[in-house]
User: What shape does this take?
Amino acid sequence: MSQQTQGNKGMEENTQVHTGLLRFTLGVEESRAYWAQVEPGVATTTVQVFEQSWFPHKSQARVDFILRAFRMRYQAYPAALEALHAWPNMDLYSATIIAHWHTQLADPLYRSFSAWIAKRRLIGPGTIRKAEVLRWLESEYPERWAATTMGTWATKLLAAAAEVGLVSSRRDPRPLACPRVNDQALTYILYLLRELRFQGSMVDNPYLSSVGLDGGVLADRIGQLPDISLNRMGDLVELTFKAPSLVEWVGGSQ
Assistant: This one.
């Protein structure tokens, strides 16, 4: 049964549907540049970022849009942003998965879509087509957008899914897949979830299930982590964290 975690009341997943993903999907490379150069807690202006070329070859208007997206994805979670800034030489696999998770946090439509993909994947090896995504959108958000916008939504959702590895092709039929999640990325999201309010539990939520981490698979993976341990008592699952916070975990593990 779904339940809401009781984390930091100032940090919670966004529940307001918006159209940001129509103009900017995961932005993995932009995210990495942002994490490296932003000073957590210090105001950052579009002009400053544009003149310092944080995102090379982007117009000032595009820089402004990216920063607005990142305010929702990263600045809304200051502990996470501080940890990401302090994480040097992050590998591409971790960066991609973390960008996916933060896009889920900021975008309830993308979160629902990736949860739907996860359910489709549980049925067994299969594929997905753009027409099926359109039908899902029409059932979840009937008459909310015009047909052309719905088509753009389907395209962008599938592009994000391909970027993170939820599908392994950018053309129909698109095989369903599971991205690689290394131990550092898994530890990151568990520490972050502990500090958030979100729908689900620490071991049953769309962030982990979207990348194939649930049930026994998740328990086995957590059992291999050096900084988190899992204990079961019947249906009760308890996680024990070695570091007191996400920021301190990153500081102590890098």
